[in-house]
Amino acid sequence: MKNLKTVLSTLFLIVFSLLIVACSNSASNTTVETTATKEIKETVAQKKTFTVGFDAEYPPYGFVADDGSYKGFDLDLASEFCKRAGYEFKAQPIDWNSKDLELNQGNIDCIWNGFTVTGRENDYTWTFPYVDNSIVLVVRSDSKIEKKADIAGKVVMGQAGSSAITALEEEENAELRNSFKSLEQCPDYNSGFMNLESGMIDCLAVDIGVAKFHLNSSNGKFKQLSENLSSEQYAVGFKKGNTKLRDEVEKVISEMWKDGTFIKIAENYKDYSLTDMICLGEYVK
């Protein structure tokens, strides 16, 4: 009887020990799985979003394609930046008049959309310029307006909040501006060209890239005056003081220029003469 008790005790101890080992292994596996899951979640969380504010009706820099997606030269550049820098790219269309509010509230990380440095040098933290753009004057092809002096007494229009309006409001253009019958503002350049075609206005002040597109696609409805209103440069604008993100973008843009990617992207927009307007090579050596 004593031997039987001894055997039973021994068996109990063996079974108990096995149960302890099994529980320990289970706990260990749970710990490993929990740790792995945590690491995956942390990796996903570390993939930062880069939100670009842009005007969805400003070709070739940003616009809505036929399939409803957002396209454009600047959006292509920003998307390539995100691929190289490890960001998740987000194109955020904005009301151009509210761009400062969107930027200051943190709804967007930057304004990357044919954004003019000239006259705004101290308002944002800028990358180096990459496009040398001019503000030109466009009229109907049957118009008798041939030069800037002919606009006196005429109705002129520009996009609200645009560099064209800024240029017209500058002191050097005060005499020209005061000669207009009126200076009107439109929400976007598509409506501006519609107003010009319908005869509601006599002249449209517009960026040369946008002008080239409409001139090339309008079957001779418009013509550009030989005298430019002003010259300007485009860059990426960040909230004042955000030099860290600016420097990161500049570094990648420089790499894109050196390996030829920047020009290849610009060549996708030949209808806008973009390759003739690129000035990045003056700043990246």
Highlighted features:
D-Maltodextrin-Binding Protein, domain 2; disordered N terminus; 285 residues; alpha/beta; 9 helices; single chain; 2 domains; 6-stranded mixed beta sheet
Tell me about this structure.
With 285 residues, the chain is of the alpha/beta class. It has two domains: 130 residues, Periplasmic binding protein-like II (D-Maltodextrin-Binding Protein, domain 2, 3-Layer(aba) Sandwich), CATH 3.40.190; 99 residues, Periplasmic binding protein-like II (D-Maltodextrin-Binding Protein, domain 2, 3-Layer(aba) Sandwich), CATH 3.40.190. Strands 8, 9, 10, 11, 12 and 13 form a six-stranded mixed β-sheet that branches. A three-stranded parallel β-sheet has the order 5-1-6. It has a three-stranded antiparallel β-sheet with strand order 2-3-4. Helix 2 crosses helix 8. The N terminus is likely disordered.
Rounded mean pLDDT score:
86
CATH homologous superfamily heading of the largest domain: Periplasmic binding protein-like II
Largest sheet, described in full? 6 strands, mixed
What spatial form do the alpha-carbon principal axes imply?
Answer: globular
CATH architecture of the largest domain: 3-Layer(aba) Sandwich
Helix content percent band:
40-55%
